[in-house]
Amino acid sequence: MKQIIINGTNTISGEIAISGAKNSVVALIPAAILSDSLVKITNVPKLSDCDSLEQILLDLNCDVIRNKDTFVISTMNMQNKFISNELSQKLRASYYFMGSLLAKYNHVEIGMPGGCDFGTRPIDLHLKGFEQLGAKVTVLDDRIILDAPQLNGTTINLEKVSVGATINLLLAATKANGITTINNAACEPEIDNVIDFLNNMGAKISGKGTSTLQITGVKKLGTSQIAVIPDRIETGTYMILATLLGDLKITNTNPIYVKSICDILKQMGVNIEYSANEIIVHKSFNNKPINIETNPYPGFPTDLGQIIAVLMTQINGQSTLTENIYNGRTKYLVHLSNMGADINLKDNVTTINGPTKLIGTTVEATDLRAGAAFLVAGAIAEGSTTINKADLILRGYENIVEKLDKIGINIIIQDELDKNLTPESVKKKKL
Ligand code: UD1
Question: Is 262 tagged catalytic?
Fold first, then answer.
């Protein structure tokens, strides 16, 4: 595993360019196999999750040309096979191959999804939706099997707003007979990105950006080209960092996607300027305490909860974070508390009293966004912070070490020391 070592600083300055959105690209790549021809995806971020999805494509015998930030994928020689647990468990979004393979071949065998561990992450809504479309679902110890003589359009009322279930059912319905309506669909911009990609292929999906999607099944899907939208979570992460440490210009982004974050920061007193695809955040002193609730888009994203909690530690007074989506996202609190934060957790509400001085220590990236939170905490802490399991951060932030280094943060990444090494074993190796 990797570790990141970061030294606290007083100031940052300059520009950061935002990469393509992780949560978009991890759906666009599985969606690509729906094409009967070839597709091109541009603005693909360099993330380990993209490498994992590329491995799945290659295992399914797709042809992939990867050049800088572009994926060209041809399905001409593709074969439908069991996607092993070794491949599927590398990331959560491997489960999007359920929807796309089901639509294409009416049969799927896939290992269990992986992904960050922040409590139970059920996929019952995905499976129930596939059943409603006509698939038989069998869950075994080592695989999920989906089988459908044919898929028929229907009305699916999602019991909960779910990004993953919305995308998976959208993929499955693209080639079903007749019309499928998904009610209570999630409205995240990443879903719109997938809809544009599929409609460019020839799919017939309406209702983009709303909570009701209507999909009229088509027989064939052809070539398509799409650019991955800017990552709103990466944008929000750097906005929070800038609030704490210095004026920062964030380029290649879309201010509309981060409106909820801008609203919260402005309520605190932060000065933010925008243009069409840039945001300038000014370092902000004397921020006001805030009460934040995470909610589905356009609400404040759960993926930024842990990161804004670090900002709360520097505000004079009591702030609260109510986690409404993944309330298992709390393992990071013990580490933040070890750094000096004054935190109290009750049910799904984290109360933070500030300001408290943070002191560098060794912490663990308990999940991807927790890792990002520790980067922000380490950047403002006194002394040096070592973040173990930093590979998790690289799953979601392209070139993060280089980007932070460029704006003035003292940061390095290296391999973690092998825990089995002892003075004796080193001595033996020498002999
Ligand atoms: C996606 C994002 C993740 C983000 C989350 C919420 C990707 C790859 N990941 O995750 O970064 O934190 O949205 O914005 O896009 N639920 C069920 N049953 C299901 C599915 C979900 O009960 O079948 C529940 C979940 O436990 C959670 C809520 O619904 O409480 C929302 O989850 P969902 O939107 O599905 O999250 P993901 O798609 O896994």
Answer: no
